[in-house]
Design a protein that fits this description.
By secondary structure, the chain is mainly α. It has one domain (2-87). Helices cover 82% and strands 0% of the residues. The chain has three helices and no strands. It is flat and about 50 Å long. The termini are far apart.
Length: 88
């Protein structure tokens, strides 16, 4: 029952967000876009927190092994992202 109520509230919120993004006023559309980005960012943070907690629960032997080549590639991509952020 509680899940059904939570889902209904979430669907109502999503419907309101969609309607605001097609509003004739550019200010309202901009506010809706900002809200959508903040919402998506909050969801990503929650997902990352859950992912990290799941990884921390695993023992070192159960955690995935990443090769040195994969780590270099990943860190290279991170540095490219930081460079783009600093340029903006």
């Amino acid at each position: 029952m509680i899940d059904a109520v939570a889902i209904t509230i979430a669907q109502g919120y999503m419907l309101a967000r969609v309607r605001l993004t097609s509003h004739p006023s550019p200010v309202v559309r901009l506010a809706a876009a900002r809200d959508a980005m903040a919402w998506d960012g909050a969801l990503l943070k929650r997902e990352l927190t859950v992912f990290r907690q799941e990884r921390e629960r695993l023992t070192a032997k159960q955690r995935p092994h990443y090769t040195a080549k994969w780590l270099r590639t990943y860190l290279g991509l991170l540095s490219i992202g930081r460079t783009k952020d600093s340029m903006a």
